[in-house]
Amino acid sequence: GAPFDPTFMLSCAVSNVICSIVFGRRYDYKDKRFLSLMNNMNNIFEMMNSHWGQLYQMFPNILYYLPGPHNRIFAEFDALKAFVAEEVKVHQASLDPSSPQDFIDCFLSKMEEEKNNPDSSFHMKNLITSTFDLFLAGTETTSTTIRYGLLLLLKNPKIQ
């Protein structure tokens, strides 16, 4: 009966769906690694929406070398990429090319197919970056869209 902010809950739900597609498994909402991951993402979005974050988006080559609070974002990005890289290592160890279970398995299989092609886009850096992008961009846009839909429903009880 009391008001609440569904932002974090929606982000967790959306992230878990993306995790099931990308990593092949869902996380418990109390899992420390998952909560740390969600915290990293929230910090990134918060920083990217600040004045420093907007300046960084316009002038990344310059601001990369300047001191300021925008530099914290690099640590957050590194933490997320480390999480993804760890998941990739786990997938490499258990990969069955005849039965891919998720996005990472499919990408690893394609990497193996094209290992002799020097112009292939299927390499480790692209795998980590693509997975990172799917996870980060997919979570924010989808949860924001659902939140906006909930707001519209609240403002229009007859349609609700």
From TrEMBL:
For this protein, the Enzyme Commission number is: 1.14.14.1
Q: Name one GO cellular component term.
A: endoplasmic reticulum membrane
Asked if the Swiss-Prot or TrEMBL record annotates the protein with the keyword Secreted, the reply is no
Gene3D superfamilies in the cross-refs = Cytochrome P450
Its record classes its membrane topology as: Peripheral membrane protein
Q: Which cofactor does it need?
A: heme
Sorted alphabetically, the keyword list is: Endoplasmic reticulum, Heme, Iron, Membrane, Metal-binding, Microsome, Monooxygenase, Oxidoreductase
Q: What is its main location?
A: endoplasmic reticulum
Q: Where in the cell is it found?
A: Endoplasmic reticulum membrane; Microsome membrane
**Which InterPro entries does the annotation name?**
Cyt_P450, Cyt_P450_E_grp-I, Cyt_P450_sf, Cytochrome_P450_fam2
- Does this UniProt record's set of keywords contain Chloroplast? no
Q: What domain of life does the native source organism fall in?
A: Eukaryota
Q: Which GO terms describe its biological process?
A: epoxygenase P450 pathway; xenobiotic metabolic process
Q: Which SUPFAM superfamilies match?
A: Cytochrome P450
Q: Which GO terms describe its molecular function?
A: arachidonate epoxygenase activity; heme binding; iron ion binding; oxidoreductase activity, acting on paired donors, with incorporation or reduction of molecular oxygen, reduced flavin or flavoprotein as one donor, and incorporation of one atom of oxygen
What family is this protein classified in? Belongs to the cytochrome P450 family.
Annotated PANTHER family: CYTOCHROME P450 2E1, CYTOCHROME P450 508A4-RELATED
Protein name stated in the entry = unspecific monooxygenase
